[in-house]
Amino acid sequence: MRSLALLVVLLAGPAISGVEPSRLTEAARTQIGVTVTYDPAYAALAFPGGDLPRDRGVCTDVVIRALRDAWGIDLQLAVHRDMAGHFAAYPPLWGLTRPDRNIDHRRVPNLRTLLTRIGADLPLTDGPTPYLPGDIITWTLPGNLSHIGILSDRRTEDGIPLVLHNIGVGAHEEDILFAYPMTGHYRIGADEADRLKSLTR
User: pTM of this prediction?
Assistant: First the structure.
């Protein structure tokens, strides 16, 4: 499986797809050295555009901040509006009966649902699906924990894209793409970006 995925990565070459993914990866990279603490505590946030202090956060905050900084997309508002209109489409994992704008966008299963609903999901198969800069990947970590990160435009010597993420010690850029079972692969192109922005107007 890893060897096939590596072949796909190498065949993909340096091509870039989507809405300026280099801006997304760069926005994620600027969080390194700024977000230095992993903090999963529930917090009341401003709305829209709410955020924790940038020195702290979780894996989803890397994606949230990157999309805001790079493309002006507010996932807090997008998730809240989509959940308000389609609450039953989202995972009933937390015993909620209505959306919670403080936390919904900071939960990986909710981001997976939103990205699928806007058509950004790519199939997880053994077939030739290249991994490109700016792609969003989700995994299941040991302990059945959900995780999310953004693919970098930098690669290992073997050609594996690095991942920009926060897995417990702040924002980092690391070789973890194939370290854990993947649960989702998403690519935000022009159409998907427009669908997200339509939720925030």
Answer: 0.90
What is the domain partition of the chain in residue ranges? 2-198
pLDDT in tens, 35-82: 999 999 999 999 999 999 999 999 999 999 999 999 999 999 999 999
Region for 98 from its dihedrals, namely left if φ exceeds 0, alpha if ψ lies in -120 to 50, beta otherwise = beta
Dihedral over Cα of 187, 81, 78, 190: its sign? positive
pLDDT (tens digit, 9 = 90+) per residue, 3-41? 444 444 433 433 334 457 789 999 999 999 999 999 999
Looking at domain 2-198, which CATH architecture does it have? Alpha-Beta Complex (3.90)
DSSP string across 83-126: HHH-GGGS---S--SS--TTTGGGSHHHHHHHHHHTT-EE--SS
Q: What is the 3-state secondary structure (H, E, C) of 29-71?
A: HCCCCCCCEECCCCCCCCCCCCCCCCCEECHHHHHHHHHHHHH
According to DSSP, the β-strands at 182-186 and 136-141 are antiparallel
Please state whether beta strands 37-38 and 56-57 pair in parallel, antiparallel, or not at all (unpaired). Answer: parallel
